Amino acid sequence: MNTEEKNPQTEAGTDPQTDAEPEASQETExxxxxxxxxxxxxxxxxxxxxxxxxxxxxxxxxxxxKDQLLRTAAEYDNYRKxxxxxxAAIYSxxxxxxxxxxxxxxxxxxxxLEQQECSVEDLRKGVEMVQTQLxxxxxxxxxxxxxxxxxxxxxxxxxxxxxxxxxxxxxNVVAQxxxxxxxxGDKVVRHATVVVAN
Length: 198
Prior knowledge:
The chain is of the alpha+beta class. It has a domain at 144-198: Head domain of nucleotide exchange factor GrpE (Nucleotide Exchange Factor Grpe, Chain A, domain 2), CATH 2.30.22. It is 62% helix and 16% strand. It is built from four helices and six strands. The protein has helices at residues 8-11, 16-37, 39-114, 120-140; strands at 143-146, 158-164, 173-179, 181-184, 187-190, 192-197. The strands form two sheets. It has a three-stranded antiparallel beta sheet. Strands 2-6-3 form a three-stranded mixed beta sheet, with no helix packed on it. The longest helix has 76 residues, at 39-114. Residues 1-14 and 16-20 have low confidence and may be disordered.
């Protein structure tokens, strides 16, 4: 007679040690799933939402900056165009004001030429009157004459065309003026053409 006692678990073909291992691995898998879907999953989701929010805020800020840049560029373009128009208008107005001062001179010259019979003396007086009128018009525009005999020669104001020796004149002075110069304030409009002595 066989005295070996049969283990009911052995009979069933199950080993307690091998049965425990699948149960442990199943528990581990459950724990990992729980970890992924549980607290760890919530944390990742919260981080993702925070990053998404930051991205949206950055995109909104970028959009505002772009809009502001476009507005600034448009404003600058409008300012540039307006400035160009104003400069053109100022130049046009200044030219018109200058021409207006010379129109009476032109009118008097026309009247003088319309005279059929006049003496040389009358003609001379008429030309002198027109010259006086012209000088007044230039003065109103801030234009002053420069270049007169006896002035010290200044290359910034005078254009010397020749040099002469003159015992009666001081050294490096204007002896003769071929053509008067003109300036507005400190700006030279035309240099005086002169002859320099010594």
